[in-house]
Design goal:
The protein is of the alpha+beta class. It has a single domain, classed as Arc Repressor Mutant, subunit A (Orthogonal Bundle), CATH 1.10.10.10. Helix content is 44%, strand content 15%. It has six helices and five strands. A three-stranded mixed beta sheet has the order 4-3-5, with no helix packed on it. It has a two-stranded antiparallel sheet with strand order 1-2. A hairpin with a 4-residue loop joins strand 1 and strand 2. Helix 2 packs across helix 4. The longest helix has 19 residues. The protein is globular. The N terminus is likely disordered.
């Protein structure tokens, strides 16, 4: 798995989207769970950009497309996608973003641009945290790191 923050770099975004959808389709088939049309559309919405969206932003898109207007529609789809590892919840923003490494067992670290809202996902090293937990008799089950700052584009814009 790459540690490159794809959201901050120029890349073939169409390929990014199709690879993530293919990974989700394959994982759902292997797990014998259903990627319903609404769930798939929510994933597609989140894959359109590397910006985290709130549940009500997703719901507005679903409603505009005639796929549902009630909050449970969005929340159920998002819950499924998070549970399956296709989407992450960004606590700091109370929003969701498509996983950059769907299907991979990983410890994500999120770099959130405070200016443009772009979120990049990278692999986090939680070795020191694991050592601290072990020293205190604590068993780690999951770690998520969220950091806020300026992406390369906004740094360049800020310097001008």
């Amino acid at each position: 798995m790459s540690n490159d923050p794809m959201a901050f770099a120029r890349h073939d975004h169409d390929n990014c989207i199709s690879a993530a959808l293919a990974a989700a389709d394959a994982a759902c088939a292997a797990r014998k769970v259903k990627l319903s049309p609404v769930r798939r559309r929510v994933l597609e919405i989140l894959l359109e950009s590397h910006v985290a969206l709130g549940a009500y932003d997703v719901l507005a898109r679903l409603d505009a497309e005639g796929l549902g207007s009630k909050p449970p529609v969005a929340y159920r789809a998002l819950s499924f996608l998070v549970e399956q590892g296709f989407v992450h919840r960004i606590e700091r923003l109370n929003a969701f973003i498509a996983c950059a490494h769907p299907g991979a067992n990983h410890n994500p670290a999120f770099m959130i641009c405070r200016k443009c809202g772009t979120v990049a996902e990278a692999q986090a090293s939680s070795r020191s945290l694991a050592q601290a937990a072990a020293a205190n008799g604590f068993q780690l089950e999951q770690t998520v790191i969220e950091a806020e700052g300026l992406c390369p584009t906004c740094q360049t814009g800020a310097a001008a």
